[in-house]
Design goal:
285 residues, alpha+beta, Immunoglobulin-like, five-stranded antiparallel beta sheet, three-stranded mixed beta sheet, globular
Length: 285
């Protein structure tokens, strides 16, 4: 009889322990036991609609978002000769032009090299703008995991708006210091779009040319150039709670769907090119 009561007590304790751990507060990421301390990872995915291996990278990003949730901020940058339209006839395959000034500068336009030099798609930059840090898709998950427990030196708040009367997208950006530092700081701000249905080559599919492929996280434009704005020099000390505020606007093209657009902003160390924090916010919520 004592044995019976002993096991009942043990079972009750186990059940209580199980349910007491059912709800855990904190910024946890999907499917991971590791606590996420708030530093987000920017992925610049250099891609192209004529790159038949690039859908592998798109799939990798989908998997990373599923695994790491809001810790991932992806941007698809169409560049190199793989981004060239094959025709100007809009009734034919691969007529659409995804190219941007930022993509042309960094990845290269047509057959000319960009700031990154010779690159082989798909490839990417992960929390870095250093040309020596270009990585393939196999490295992305490990790099993201390495940033999860890092406390961000900055937080970014984005306040977007859209004016239909003049087709202007606006972004008010607030950068808040979390850790005292002497860094020289730059800010880059993008507009990206999801759900663009256009052609894409995919060597893993039959046929290879997919007519209604969904392109996501597509860079549409940079608000402030190829390197952004320098917003702080390294002679100025920022302390916890200090804020830097910037405002930007740009005109939306007719073929952009504002309901699928988001603003992406990130701050990076101007000297080392390390991305210190990234953020994204839906434009027309």
């Amino acid at each position: 009889m004592k044995s019976k009561y002993f096991y009942i007590i043990i079972l009750s304790a186990f059940v209580a322990l199980f349910f007491s751990c059912d709800e855990i507060e904190g910024p946890y990421i999907k499917d991971e036991a590791t606590i996420w301390n708030g530093k987000k990872t920017l992925i610049l995915d250099f891609t192209g609609h004529c790159c038949g291996n690039c859908p592998r990278a798109h799939k990798t990003i989908d998997e990373l978002i599923e695994k790491f949730g809001d810790a991932v901020v992806p941007v698809a940058v169409h560049s190199t000769y793989f981004a060239m339209p094959e025709t100007t006839d809009t009734s034919k395959a691969f007529h659409y032009d995804f190219r941007t000034s930022f993509g042309d500068f960094w990845g290269g336009r047509d057959y000319a090299y960009g700031h990154l030099g010779e690159i082989y798609l798909p490839t990417g930059l992960v929390n870095n703008l250093n040309p020596d840090q270009v990585t393939n898709t196999n490295a992305w998950a490990g790099l993201i995991a390495s940033f999860l427990t890092t406390y961000p030196e900055y937080n970014i708040e984005i306040y977007p708006s859209y004016s239909s009367s003049d087709s202007l997208a606006k972004a008010d950006i607030k950068i808040i210091t979390n850790i005292k530092n002497h860094r020289e700081l730059s800010l880059l701000v993008f507009i990206v779009e999801d759900g663009i249905i256009q052609w894409q080559k995919d060597y893993s599919a039959t046929p290879n040319n997919i007519k209604e492929y969904e392109h996501n996280h597509v860079l549409r434009a940079s608000f402030n150039g190829n390197f952004g704005d320098k917003i702080k020099d390294n002679n100025a000390v920022t302390i916890i709670g200090d804020e830097i505020n910037k405002s930007y606007s740009l005109k939306i093209n007719n073929d952009w769907n504002i309901n699928n657009c988001s603003i992406v902003a990130f701050v990076y160390d101007t000297e080392t090119k390390e991305v210190l924090q990234a953020e994204t916010k839906i434009l027309n919520e």
